[in-house]
């Protein structure tokens, strides 16, 4: 699953550490999400979307052919 997390975070001037603290995860988790090494749980995806005031679909891009 692709995502726009890094793009959105940087547009808003938020550091990985700040986002991690707000979401109660590690900075490494944020880095792994941004680099596509890790897909979030549905709960984490909702937390991220709520944090940015966006829908999950605006941040995370699901493509069936990647499954």
UniProtKB/TrEMBL annotation:
Cited SMART domains? HTH_XRE (SM00530)
**Residue ranges constituting the HTH cro/C1-type domain according to the UniProt record:** 5-59
InterPro entries given in the database record: Cro/C1-type_HTH (IPR001387), Lambda_DNA-bd_dom_sf (IPR010982)
Entry superkingdom:
Bacteria
SUPFAM superfamilies membership: lambda repressor-like DNA-binding domains
The UniProt GO MF terms for this protein read:
DNA binding
Q: Which UniProt keywords apply?
A: DNA-binding
Q: Which Pfam families match?
A: HTH_3
Protein name in the entry? Transcriptional regulator
Q: Which species is this record about?
A: Cohnella endophytica
